[in-house]
Structures are given as C-alpha cells and as structure tokens.
Amino acid sequence: MATFFDTAVRRYNEVPIGEEGIDVVTFLESTEALIKMFDILHPTAFAPVKSDMNGNVTKIRERFLVQPVAFNTLQKLVVEEVKEKKNTATVGLVWLNRGLTFTSQALRRNVDNPNEELKTSFQKAYEVTLSRHHSFLVRPIFSLAMNACPYRKDFYAKLGTDQAKVEAQMNEWLAALENCVAIITAFLNETGYEKTYG
What we know:
By secondary structure, the protein is an all-alpha fold. Helix content is 70%, strand content 2%. The chain has a two-stranded antiparallel sheet with strand order 1-2. The radius of gyration is 17 Å and the shape is globular. The chain starts with a helix and ends with a helix.
C-alpha cells in the first residue's frame, strides 16, 4: 500500500545539493509535497500556513523562471536578485525557510518522542522558531492550527498503513529536510539576508 511519501511528486532526499547550492526545481517540488502534509494535520486550521508557504514558493519560482539556467540554485538566485536591488524571492526564501524550520523541528520532536502528541510537538517547535517573528495578531492563528492537530496515532495512520515503512520513510525524508534547512539557514546568516530581509 502506498504511503504519503510514495505519492509525493518529489522528496527532499531527491534534491541535488552541490557546491553552488540547492537545486531550485526539486527543492520547490519537495516543498509543495510537504505543504500537502498540512491537509493531513487539518486542512482548515492549517490553511493560513499552507497559503503562506505556497506564496513563498511562488515568489521563488517566479524569480527562477526569469533565468532558469543562471538561477538553478537557491543561493545563486538570491545572490543575483540582491545584486539587482530586488528582494521578492529573497524575502520568500527567508520566510519559507522559517516555515520549514518550524515544520521540521515539530516533526523531529514528534518522531523522537513517541509518547508526545502532535499538538505538543508543534507548540514547542513554534515557541523556538516562528513565535519571535510573529506579531500578537498572528500568534493566535498558529495557536488555533496547532490545537487542531489530530491525535498522533491518527496522523501516522493517514501517512500509510505500513507503519514500519512510514517510520523509515519519515526518518529519511526528515533528515534530508533538516539538511536543506541547515544549508539555507547557514547561507542566509552568512550573507546577512536573514537579518536584512526578515
């Protein structure tokens, strides 16, 4: 039986990462697959999260399509955009990376703590990632989404019936996502773009 990961168009462990950076096309495809996971968590409550992440994917993709060969990695795309005194895709990457950091930390916490409910994992991850970037008007929206998380057993059951396969795929996928996030975070911090455009 197919799992959530089997049906994903692209997975983070399939994203080429080279000396020049992270491949734009496969990274965005993997991110779009991740965004579909929010439908399993709660499609209505997580709609603002999905909308924000999809909007940031669109910003990056639109910039990439200007010069697909020259902008084939996230790093090259952002550096060239900043040189042109533009920042739409750069801001998009900063905020997308924040969302991916939140998601990866929540899922990592949940995987590593098999007795913890998703709600708790997402709340704890939010506290150490996105909370400091959100105003008092935005925080309640995320709080609502996290409170709507399904029970842990229900979430993992929706990812696939073969739980051993789901666990193995989740661990591989999550490790690759964390690697992408670490590379992007380091790049944004080293260049100062996180501070300037966040």
